[in-house]
What does this fold into?
Amino acid sequence: MHDRNDPAALHALAALRAAHKRYGARPALCGVDLALAPGQLHALLGPNGAGKTTAIGLLLGLLRPDGGRAELFGADPQQLAPRRRIGVMLQTGALSETLRVGELLRQTAGYYPRPLALAETARMAGIADLLARPYGKLSGGQQRRVQFALAICGRPELLFLDEPTVGLDIEARQALWATIRALVAEGCGVLLTTHYLEEAEALADRVTVLAQGRVLAAGTVAEIRARTQRTRIRCRSALAPEVLRDWDGVLDAAFEDGLLSLGVREPEPVLRRLLAADATLSALEVRRAGLAEAFTELTREAA
Ligand code: ATP
It folds into this structure.
């Protein structure tokens, strides 16, 4: 599925073209297209086992496709030259526990032709106070920030971030988001996988939703959200959800936290009818469905 509105498909930093991958008899990716562009953050979403890690593995040259192609800067991802232009933060990564953070950074930066100054990397990742500490003695969240520093220290043109904010507190997460935004604004391309949909919503220019090894939806956050075209109405009301479920245009109805919650396609007719049917109705709130709701619905339909 090539998206003609997607400039990344034409000028890609990295791409999967009809990529297939199976583990033994088990298919993990079945004809996946994905293109990453400069200055864009592309969120790769999907439930557990959807194929996200496999897709990243193909783009990084850690895995070989069984069919189709994986390209990194137009070349084979297993070549050294394109790999020197990327930064990678995976969920697993064995780092020396005994080396100090500054030593780890110097070592990794040495692998790149034009690395950032160590102090600059440390500032961007919020680890200036950790440089003298042995990596193994850091907390989980601190280690995650060091891993991010290692991913950006080579001034990458393309950054792979696999669940980067797992284990980070709110402040550290916000700081990381700000740095990611700044890198994207400078032209860096980013592939982000996350199970935090608000993270994708806050950062992503484009979203690809995978399920069972196939692309379920691809587009901007707004386009994905529009795929479900659902608006949520919440209010305090004496009306019963089981009655409302039979109304025209009501997709779902339930009590949530003491409030009536309705999913609707077109809010106006339902709102008029609600207000007419219940003179005591209060605390009314109407909003378009967010990415989380669109995502839940898309993956539920696929299942
Ligand atoms: P998660 O969100 O849980 O990290 P994911 O979207 O990254 O999931 P993958 O790890 O790519 O999913 O897995 C896709 C499918 O391939 C799953 O069915 C998984 O069980 C299978 N799989 C992944 N790695 C292997 C492997 N090394 N050997 C056999 N099967 C594998």
Summary: Residues 170-185 form the longest helix (16 residues). Residues 102 and 131 are 5 Å apart (CA to CA). The longest strand covers residues 26-36.
